[in-house]
Amino acid sequence: MGWRSTSFKVVALCGFTFFLVTDVAAGVKKTSKEVQTAFTGHIEGDVSISGMNAGSPSVSAGVTSASDSSEANSFVTKTWSRLLERLASDGFDQYELRDLFSQPEIIFDPSPMVHKMNELHSAKLRAERIKPIQERLAVLGYRPGPIDGKIGAKTRRAIIAFQYVHGLPLDGTPAEDLLRRLEGELRKAPPNIMHLDLPMETGPKVYRSVLQPERIREAKDFLALNEDLLRSVHRRYGISPKVAVSLLALETRVGNYLGEEGAFATLSSMAACADFSKIEPLLKNQPVKPRFRGWLQKRCQQKADWAYKELKALLRYAEGNKLNLLDIPGSKYGAIGICQFMPTNALIYGIDGDGDGKIDLFTAEDALPSMGNFLRHHGWKKGMGARKALYRYNRNTTYVNTILALAEHL
C-alpha cells in the first residue's frame, strides 16, 4: 500500500544524519555537533513507562512482534521514551507500545515538523514584507484593502495598478525593490485608479496542474466506475457526484496517490518534536528573528500536541477497524485514505459503507460515504453550501476553486 522497503528507510535515515552534519543545497546551514546532541537529547530519555491495568486499549493492530533484543529496547528507550510514557498514561498498553515502536518501519523523522515550521516562519517573513507595501500603497491612494500582511486580490490589484501607472513590469509581486520604489514615490494615484483596465488574471485562481487533460480523464474514469456508489452517496448526503470525485481527484488522484510514508511514524515523529529550539537549526531562512522565536515555539508546541491527538486517534482507528498500523500510508502530515481524513475525523465521520464491520478509508465503498458525511455535517445542503463545506475540508480558497472548476469538466 505504497510502503517503501525497510532497506530504503535505512538509507533515508542515514541520509538524514548526513543532512544534519553537512552543507546541503537546500540552504540549511551546517549543523554543529552541539546542535546534533541537543536535537537527539530532545527525543531521548530514561523515564520508565508506568504500568497499565489489564484491559487497556490495544495498539498492536496486527503488528508482528519484533525480537526482544537489548539493541531494539535501547533504540526504543532513546528515541521514543517520552512519547511512550505519554501514550501509556493515556491508557494504551505499554508492552504493545514497545513492540510497535521496535518495528524497523517506525523511524524517527523530524522533517514533517521542519516543513510545517518552515511554512509558518515563511508566512511571518512574508507578512513582514507585505504589510509595509500595503501601508505605502494605501498612503498613495492605491486602495490595497486590509493592512494584514496577506497578498489578497485587492493588494495584488493595487500593486499591479502602481506598476501600470509607473511603467513597471506587471507581475503583482510584493518584492523588496517594489517597497523601495514605493517609499521613494510621492505622487498620488490617479483619480480613476479603480477604473483602470488592468491586465488582471480573469476567473478564480486554481491549481492548473489538476485541470490538465490527464487528470480530468482520470477523474472521469473514476466517476464512471463508481456511478452507482456515487448516486447512493448523493441520495443519502446530498453531495454532488462530480464535486465528490473532484475532491478525491485533488486529494489523492482518486486513490492513485495515498502518500509515501507511514501515517503512524509521521504523527509519532511530529508529536516528539515539541521543542522549537531543536527544529530551528534546520529551518531554511536563518537566522530566526528574536521577535518571531516565542511565537514559533508556541506554534511548534501546538503542532506537536495536535499530532499527539491525531496519533491517539490513529491507534484507536486501526484497532477498532482491525487494520495493520504499519500498512497505513499517509500524507506528509498524517492524513489517511482515499478521502485524506485526519484520524480524528476518521473516528467521528467514518462510515462503514459496505457493511463489512469496519471503516476502511482506502476503499471507495467506505471513503465516499465518509466524505459525504463530513461535508453534510459542515454545511453542505442539496444545491447549497458547497463552497462553505469544501472550505472546511481544506481552508484554502484556491483549493475550493479548483474542486469546483474540475467538477465543471466532468
Biggest sheet, spatial arrangement of strands: 1-2
Order of helices and strands: HHHHHHHHHHEHHHEHHHH
Mean pLDDT: 84
Structural class: mainly alpha
SSE topology sketch:
Layout (H helix, E strand, L loop, with lengths): L5 H16 L11 H11 L26 H20 L4 H8 L9 H29 L13 H13 L10 H9 L28 H13 L1 H11 L3 H12 L8 E2 H9 L4 H4 L10 H31 L8 E2 L12 H7 L14 H14 L8 H8 L3 H13 L1
Antiparallel strand pairs: 1-2
Tell me about this structure.
This protein has a two-stranded antiparallel ribbon. It is flat and about 70 Å long. Helices cover 56% and strands 1% of the residues. It has helices at residues 6-21, 33-43, 70-89, 94-101, 111-139, 153-165, 176-184, 213-225, 227-237, 241-252, 263-271, 276-279, 290-320, 343-349, 364-377, 386-393, 397-409, and strands at residues 261-262, 329-330. The model is unreliable at 1-38, 40-58 and 60-68 (pLDDT under 50). With 410 residues, the protein is mainly alpha-helical. The longest helix has 31 residues, at 290-320. Helix 3 (70-89) crosses helix 4, helix 5 (111-139) crosses helix 13 (290-320) and helix 11 (263-271) runs antiparallel to helix 13.
Brief digest:
With 410 residues, the protein is mainly α. The protein has helices at 6-21, 33-43, 70-89, 94-101, 111-139, 153-165, 176-184, 213-225, 227-237, 241-252, 263-271, 276-279, 290-320, 343-349, 364-377, 386-393, 397-409; strands spanning 261-262, 329-330.
Tags for this entry?
two-stranded antiparallel ribbon, mainly alpha, 17 helices, 56% helix, 410 residues, disordered N terminus
